[in-house]
Design a protein that fits this description.
Elements: E1 2-4, E2 8-9, H1 20-33, E3 39-43, E4 49-53, H2 55-63, E5 68-73, H3 78-88, H4 96-108, H5 114-120, H6 125-137, H7 140-147, H8 153-166, H9 168-178, H10 185-197, H11 200-208, H12 210-223, H13 231-255, H14 264-292
Parallel strand pairs: 2-4, 3-5
Antiparallel strand pairs: 1-5, 3-4
Amino acid sequence: MQLELGELDLRYASLRISDRARAQRLVASLCEVGQQTPVLVVRGEGDRFVLIDGYARVDALRRLAHDVVEAAVLELAEAEALVVGYRLDNTRPRSALEEGWLLQELREHHGLTLDDLARKLDRSKSWVSRRLALVRVLPVSVQSAVQSGRVGAQIATKYLVPLARANAAQCDRLVKQLGDERLSVRNAARLYDAWRKGDAELRTRVVEHPNLFLLAQAAARDDDVDPHADKEIAAVVDDLGAVAGLCVRARGRLDKHDISAAGAVQRRTLISAFGHARAAFGSLSARLEEEAH
């Protein structure tokens, strides 16, 4: 049957990881041949239908400004439908975290026991427990970064989970400080290895300035020099990270305010402060450019 996109309840969107490359392929496929496979829904409240499987297809249809989607209605309770959707999904393997999110949803919001989950998914209780543990140990902000596709599921499972077990606050801080920078598996391994082996000072440096740490480490590999041998250089790296952070924060504040609406004195003060900051940064840039050449 055809459903209007506005009739869909998307309450389970957070159970899957956003995949930008796959989304682009779906859009291209829908443009070329149209929707080939219906999404799976169950009846919700009123005239609404709860989307069980097909979130990527629905998102692609929205991007193409389509109003309707082909859907198959499962005459099942939501918990049973989620299990069926998991079993029928052969588009791509779910990551361990995605499986953990599904299990957590079924356990916490639908009341299924560990025995129920193991039986319905044809898995062992040990497997169910391990998947749930992955979800419980990771800070919510880190899980959100994985769901949005900003942090890879493999990175989260292999490196962020053990980091979170040891220090959840530093795991959370590391992911926040990465910003929008895409982290490769290799660089994730380098960050975690440095954090695991480092003292308190090095761990703080890794967590607070991960991107600068990776740059320094790459430069050290090029020069065959330990980037932490000179504490003064390490301190400069920290200072530069702080400068970058302050610039980002100042830009965010400016974006939230209309400078033209400020008083003349405030605008002059802002321009004067910017002039001093630019001169100081120019001096620093000149000094570092000397080192570069």
